[in-house]
Amino acid sequence: MRDTVQKREILTFLRAKRQHYSAAQIYDAVRTKVPNLSLGTVYRNLGHLLEDGEIISVETSDKCVYYDGFIQDHAHFVCDGCKNIFDFPLKMDIASEVLDAGFSVESEKVVYYGKCKNCRDARI
Questions:
Q1: Which residue segment(s) compose the domain that 53 sits in?
Q2: pTM: predicted TM-score of the whole model, two decimal places
Q3: Among 69, 58, 73, 67, which residue's Cα sits nearest to residue 18?
Q4: What's the CA gap between 55 and 62, in Å, rounded?
Q5: Which segment of 7-16, 34-43, 87-96 scores lowest on mean pLDDT?
Q6: Contact 16, 30 (CB under 8 A)
Q7: Which of 11, 31, 62, 124 is deepest in the core (most CB within 10 A)?
């Protein structure tokens, strides 16, 4: 996939902060730098960036997809109440156990779903 201004700006935006963004949020932010950007172009480039391993995606329990520019190994916690996504370090290397069993690991994704402390306490 060729390198384009749109692709570079999307990746730069995603890597600038340790947050998770929807395609619409990315579109709104990047459009200020690339005025002729379309939402279709954002989705197409997000797909390419995912395929290339430049970003990762996280799906909420209601099937909304968010994109993450922080690609070092980490787990996600998705709150079903407030819909926030939190990053956590991986505490255990399950991949090494899988490798020891003779499997080949291509990628790893750990996502927990539930309620964050605030939503649990507020009973949201």
A1: 5-122
A2: 0.86
A3: 69
A4: 21
A5: 87-96
A6: no
A7: 11
